[in-house]
Specification:
Length: 147
């Protein structure tokens, strides 16, 4: 799904740049759409990136530890940092989204995008996917510890 969002984001940016440069018309809505696609791409790919172990780490320390120590650090991080953090973001993100929905929040710009709750709903969804990924990684690490 991320690759489709990336293609849509690139096409939107390309359209925006061409229309601003050659047609000399700018659109706040198109620019906001770029931000929304970028945010969606980031939030929906968090969990996948974590499961693939492709996220940023401080490898200078990690490479000096044994496999068992790294596994224990990962389990501790999932249980006491990542999963609780995801739970907090989901809890407040749902409220954040519902408030935007109930007041029918729109862009502050006159010709900006409507339905701001749609992009705000991706915050709890993205962190829900990240939390599920953390549980998956935790279960895999536990299996290696037991096996």
């Amino acid at each position: 799904m991320g690759r489709f969002l990336l293609i849509i984001l690139m096409l939107t940016i390309l359209f925006d740049v061409i229309s601003r440069r050659f047609i000399t018309t700018g659109s706040v809505a198109i620019q906001e759409l770029e931000w929304h696609f970028h945010g969606a791409l980031f939030l929906l790919c968090l969990g996948f990136t974590y499961m693939e172990d492709a996220h940023v780490r401080v490898d200078i320390f990690r490479e000096k530890f044994s496999e068992k120590t790294n596994r224990l650090i990962e389990v501790f991080g999932c249980l006491f940092l990542l999963i609780p953090y995801c739970s907090i973001v989901i809890y407040f993100g749902i409220d954040f989204t519902l408030k935007a929905y109930y007041v029918n929040e729109v862009s502050a710009a006159a010709d900006g995008l409507s339905y701001r709750w749609i992009i705000k709903s991706l915050l709890p969804i993205g962190f829900f996917l990240l939390g599920l990924s953390a549980i998956s990684v935790l279960l895999k690490k536990e299996q290696k510890t037991d096996g």
